[in-house]
Amino acid sequence: MVGTVQIDTAQINPPRTVSVLAYDGMTAFETGIVTAVFGGSWPELDSPRYELKICAEERGPLRMVGGATLHTSYGLDALVEAQTVIVPSIADVTREPSPELITALRRAHQQGSRWCRSAPEPSHWPPPAC
Asked: How far apart are the C-alpha atoms of 129 and 96, rounded to whole Å?
């Protein structure tokens, strides 16, 4: 007798965790691209490839360029736990990142996370302290 075996591919290839850093003054474009690529559902795939978490240093609403606000329940702890960390361009390349953010980025790196960034000038990010 010939039968079919169904395999739950989510058990074989669990979704990769991806965290993106959100901050006050970011553009919707930066968040939108990351959300479309890593947060969208793809019906042709039988299981999700990514688990996206938008993380912020500050609690509460983050103001985006153009007047929109972004709310997230994920803090830097979720950024540390991610397998891939995305740091979009930053509003002010002359401003030093907080010690808490530097610590979180270092911890994520020590745990083997992959990094992706899009900064105005690559020499400005990540800061030398990382």
From this structure: 10
